[in-house]
Amino acid sequence: MNQNLTTYYKERAKEYDQVYQIPEEQNDLLQSAQLFQTIFAGNSVLEIACGTGYWTEQISKTANSVLATDINEAVIDIAKTRNLPGNVNFKVADMNSLSADQPFEGLFGGFIWSHILLEELDELLDKLRNHLLPGADIVFIDSRPVKGKSHDPKMITRVDEQGNTFQTRQLENGTTFEVLKNFPSTSFLEEKMARVATDIRVMELEYYWIASGKIKDR
Ligand SMILES: C[S@@+](CC[C@H](N)C(=O)[O-])C[C@H]1O[C@@H](n2cnc3c(N)ncnc32)[C@H](O)[C@@H]1O
Fold it and tell me: What is the CATH number of domain 5-145+184-215?
């Protein structure tokens, strides 16, 4: 079975936006969008793993600028069809090896935390911090495991020695992938965020968690 996350999202690109049509999640989506628009108002924002640009569009409504990056050109091509305002720029880039001319006032990562190996989180957060000003707002959102819904804990098909959890997923063309999908606890999120941020807040919505904070002074 294919275990390559980049290939999975490349092949899923055209069907990805279905996740934003789930009726019972609309409340959480609206609440999250409003929160991000408040947090990032007037900021220059670096977005990692922007995918098809759902959150890019929401954040661009109040941010001063958004540099939206993703490793897959296929998803960025779809994001570009949203015809977003001139304060948005897209760039194909791996979040592990980003280059940028100037530090940003905000960092956003939507539904990417769950796809980062537990043992690689610290290193990634340190790298991302290098692109941020002290006091920059840093925000992640991702899925909570909810019984009977799209992230039912029963869908976990493998747990590795480090505690990373994996799901088996099938695309519309029948291809199957084993995908890393971690479900962090609030205390784990607080502990990891504390490495780079202060003013940490972890919110639990019905289907999502949101972790936010402000980048520490050096
Ligand atoms: C679950 S999707 C989230 C997309 C978007 N943020 C959203 O919330 O709708 C995960 C995204 O991460 C991207 N991705 C995976 N590995 C990456 C990496 N190393 N660097 C940048 N993007 C990556 C995939 O291409 C995919 O678009």
Answer: 3.40.50.150
